[in-house]
Amino acid sequence: MGKQLFIAEKPSVAAEFAKALKVNGGRRDGYLESDQYVVTWCVGHLITMSYPEVYDPALKKWSLNTIPFFPEEWKYEVIGSVKKQFAIVKGLLNRADVDTIYICTDSGREGEYIYRLVDQMAGVKNKKRLRVWIDSQTEEEILRGIREAKDWSFYDHLSDSAYLRAKEDYLMGINFSRALTLKFGPAVASFMNTKWSVISVGRVMTCVLGMVVRREREIRSFVKTPFYRVIISLPVAQEENKGTVEAEWRSVEGSKYFQSPKLYKENGFLKRETAQELINYLEAPLNPEEKKPDCTLIKIEKKKEQKQPPLLFNLAELQNTCSRRFKISPDETLKIVQELYEKKMVTYPRTDARVLSTAVAKEISKNIRGLSNFAPVGSFAQEILSQDAWKTIAKTRYTNDKQITDHYAIIPTGQGLGAYERLSGVAKGVYEVICRRFLSIFYGPAVYKKYALEFQVKTEHFFTSYRMLEDPGYLKVTGMPQESTAQKEGEEEFAVDETSFLSRILSGLKKGMLFEETSYAVKEGETSPPKRYNSGSLILAMENAGQLIEDDELRAQIKGSGIGTSATRAEILKKLVSNGYLSLNAKTQIIKPQKLGEAIYEVVAVSIRQLLNPELTASWEKGLTYVSEGTITSQEYMDKLQNFVARRTQGVKQVTNPGAIRGNFAGFEAFYETSRKS
Question: How far apart are CA 182 and CA 658, in angstroms?
Fold first, then answer.
């Protein structure tokens, strides 16, 4: 019987497989070996696609005459820096005494691509190949993955989509970047006052650039509109409890200002004078003998509201949370959660799912039990176990096999806690956030009591609402929200401490109550511009690209496919920053376009505008999903891709006056010049 070869994506992962397989000795150069097993590793990618000049030396020089370029037979080559390890891996894959190969690269499209290229370049023949698919690096999960490994042909469609994704990026990048650089590069270089300018574009990268530039231009063109609200203050005294209730005027049917052109929405006015006019009307006696009109409580509603625990983290949601809470970039978040994964502390990070699988839900008590001795959340884990709260999780919205493609949500394994103290401060924080989100789903909802009050003075109505937290539920685990007197435009809603005097006053209010000593005030506000993306919100926007698409049919068609993938979005953002197209503030994580980025935006807008649209980018991603599912063939996808690249490249080549693009730069040139001087 021959030996079994296990090939992982990284040395650290290979070490975990060796440990699980009890391959303790036998350390060699680039692999480990025992009597039964051989364990080796890639170093990330070992193989890359060849540049055009490998196909034809004439293609090294950029020329409009040699594009569009479509290889008839794709060429690949070993990356120079890892040639030694590839030679070792190639030798092991083809060793006569190895009859079975276990493919243990990361369980996803990119991991599949890494091994398939190695297998192709190594010329492996007549070996049994089994694919190991795991969700964490715990010994238990590794051994399960080995036991349940499937023939690699089961993943052929996934492999097809991986190859196509790489070919798509290659063809768009090579052809579009060359075409745009040759046509518009001189104009951009002149504008930027540089010797030359390479215009780098891509299927995903350019779309993200478009999102940021459009948002920035919305902010620049935004004109603030002042508005004026009328607030009534109502003194309340009940036994020893005294306080003030405030309510906001709104225009409702019957109001003297109902549907008036003087209104800013229904809760304010465009001019202060009109707001004061309303106050004068409200304070004026109904007749000379009467005092100021009373205010009557005409409606009081009391109801319970529940807020359920949020779904579990996928990578995008975790990156967004960490951007806000720890002010770290999506790339930094991914590095941290990858480190936690490699230390066996959390499950596979590059996932789009926010739920558990049914199989995992049945065994989830193991994860919880492992956290019972983790001080920050141990008491919660113990409480969940003591109440058997985990036993029903398979029947809730937190478990759904249909919402899982490759991997379930990011959760703590309950193992590897010995490594916790050696983590950085931020990494500890990220791990704790994951733990708290996970444990929170085993708790009940937060329960609020909400009061909605409506008052009337003459023909006018005032509204306010308050809510108090009666039962924190899952908030005990995740932390109480920081809300005291948070005001929302159009509605005042206050969070009230259950023991406060205002809580006691509210509970004593009755319909029909009169308030005599009322006072009015005008509160000025102003409309706010759209918010800039931060690194986390941009990642979420990429994941939820369908929300940016107005066409209902197309939005439904691409549902579940965003811009890029969980594995690539952070790297795309990082590349846009390193190219000088976007800036990322390290302290705030706010993203803005750079001058060069806006110039590239204008070039693409007049040449290959579709690259700026989320519709196109998300539909290509959806197409790759169809390939991985076997719904369409690789050839169908490639035919569509080559047709698109050929037509758009030809369109760029036909531009007769590329220098005219300088006129498009004038719109934002003045902005950057003013910013520079200030």
Answer: 10
Rounded distance, CA 228 to CA 223, Å? 17
Higher pLDDT, 674 or 592: 592
How many Å apart are CA 234 and CA 92, to the nearest integer?
Answer: 83
Q: DSSP assignment of 543-603, as one string?
A: HTGGGG---HHHHHHTTT--SS-TTTHHHHHHHHHHTTSEEE-TTT-BEEE-HHHHHHHHH
Residue 555's pLDDT band (boundaries 50, 70, 90)? low
Cα–Cα distance for residue pair 476/24, rounded to 1 Å = 44
DSSP-assigned states of every residue in 593-642: E-HHHHHHHHHHHHH-GGGG-HHHHHHHHHHHHHHHHTSS-HHHHHHHHH
How far apart are the C-alpha atoms of 278 and 6, rounded to whole Å?
Answer: 79
**Over the stretch 570-610, which tens digit does the pLDDT of each residue have?**
999 999 999 999 999 999 999 999 999 999 999 999 999 99
Contact 90, 101 (CB under 8 A): no
Supply the pLDDT for residue 4: 97
> Picking from 55-64, 308-317, 496-505, 618-627, which range would have the lowest pLDDT averaged per residue?
496-505
**270 token code pair:** 């465009």
Please give the model's pTM, rounded to 2 decimal places: 0.89
Q: Is the pLDDT higher at 50 or at 557?
A: 50
Q: Are 536 and 589 in contact (CB under 8 A)?
A: yes
Q: What distances in angstroms separate CA 37 from CA 26, 30, 41, 149, one per listed residue?
A: 10, 14, 13, 16
- Tell me the average pLDDT across 159-176: 95
Q: Please, which pLDDT band fits residue 568 given cuts at 50, 70 and 90?
A: confident
Q: Strands 27-28, 31-33: parallel, antiparallel or unpaired by DSSP?
A: antiparallel
Neighbours of 168 (CB within 10 A): 22
Q: Which distant-in-sequence residues (6+ apart) come within 8 Å of 622 by Cβ?
A: 557, 558, 560, 561
Q: What residue has token string 């750079």?
A: 594
pLDDT at residue 347, as a whole number? 96
CA distance 599 to 668: 9
Overall average pLDDT of the 622-632 stretch: 91
**pLDDT > 70: what percent of the chain?**
93
Q: Which residues pair with 467 in a beta bridge?
A: 450, 495
List, in order, residues 6 or more apart from 198 with CB less than 8 Å away.
177, 181, 185
Tell how far CA 119 is from the center of its chain.
33
3-class secondary structure, 674: helix
Q: Please give the Cα distance from 111 to 133 (Å, whole number).
A: 10
Written as one string, the DSSP assignment of 236-264 is EEETTEEEEEEEEEE--TTSTTTT-TTEE
Rounded CA gap, 143 and 147, in Å?
6
CA 305 to CA 465: how far, in whole Å? 13
Beta strand extents in 145-266 (DSSP E only): 150-151, 226-238, 241-250, 263-264
φ/ψ of 280, rounded to 5, equals -60, -40
Q: Where are the strands (E) in 159-294, listed by range?
A: 226-238, 241-250, 263-264, 268-269
Q: Is residue 236 pLDDT above 90, yes or no?
A: no
SS3 463: strand
Peptide bond preceding 658 in cis form (omega within 30 of 0): no
β strands within 334-490, DSSP E? 446-457, 460-471, 487-488
What's at 630, amino acid-wise? G
* Residue 420: count of CB within 10 angstroms of its CB: 17
Q: Determine the average pLDDT of the residues in 53-71.
A: 96
Angle, helices 330-342/569-578, rounded to nearest 10 degrees:
140
